Fold:
Amino acid sequence: MRHLLSTKDLSRDDAIMILDVAEDMSDVQLREVKKLPTLRGKTVVNLFFEDSTRTRISFELAAKRLSADVINFSAKGSSVSKGESLKDTAQTLAAMGADGVVIRHSSSGSPQLLADSGWIDAGIVNAGDGTHEHPTQALLDAFTMRRRIHGAASRGRDLSGVSVLIVGDILHSRVARSNLWLLRTLGAEVTFVAPATLLPFGAETWPAGIRYDLDAAIAEVNPDVVMMLRIQSERMNAAFFPNPREYARVWGLDDERLARLRPDTIVMHPGPMNRGLEISSRAADSAQSTVIEQVANGVSIRMAVLYLLLSGDREGSA
Ligand code: CP
Structure:
């Protein structure tokens, strides 16, 4: 792999390889010394034009656990706030010898632009671009599902036959899109459940079921996984539902809906959560919830991705 820009172009074999390498990275994190020398001498730049807690910190930790030098660049407080362009920023990083660039940007396609531009010869990792994709989130979600479902026998396995409900603000969600492509590649069945106002135009052409009634979907799909999405108020410039209380009542995973799930149904959320809106505190903190596991697994997945992109001779890599 040269870059990781999307899950849409990941083959099943590549996806399984990343998940299996992440299992090895997870084993490393159980050791007393949690560090590998693999990326010694390499420089990874975390280029964040949008806010982040989980993704930015876990990429930093992942790079450090692989012994890379890490530069954290936040648009706030940098020359971007003086109007510097992505091109000039990229060329500045190239001059400093960056081997890998992890980029989060509000504009869909920014990581692809960086990868195609020739401004910088580095492995590019998409850490979330607009409403387009968030591939490492989908990989850590798949890793978490695979571990909960297959346990110690996870290596080499896909998610064939697993049914996943993805609920809520699909319209603004790069997590939903990256999960859809990856989960389908791994053999899972995906159903989107949302109010019509929060489904993107053209969603009916995607390889997913579409439902508008969460209670009916829980009863009829009887899902293995329920993934609740954050309401992305910061991307909303209109009223997409009557009010937060109404949204929680109709679309939220509240205590009563939690009780109606099978005891082995997994409850996921990529974070950050709006507790009391799309998910109740009881659901978020229940034994069925994988919210904390997802964060921990994010470090293993990001170690695997950085290792696979940066550990070899990049000129000779695919
Ligand atoms: N899930 C996720 O991308 O979280 P952050 O925005 O905190 O990175």
Q: What stands out?
A: The mean pLDDT is 94. The first strand starts at residue 43 and ends at 48. The chain has two domains: 7-132+296-310, 135-290. Strands lie at 43-48, 69-74, 100-105, 123-129, 163-167, 189-193, 209-211, 225-228, 266-268.
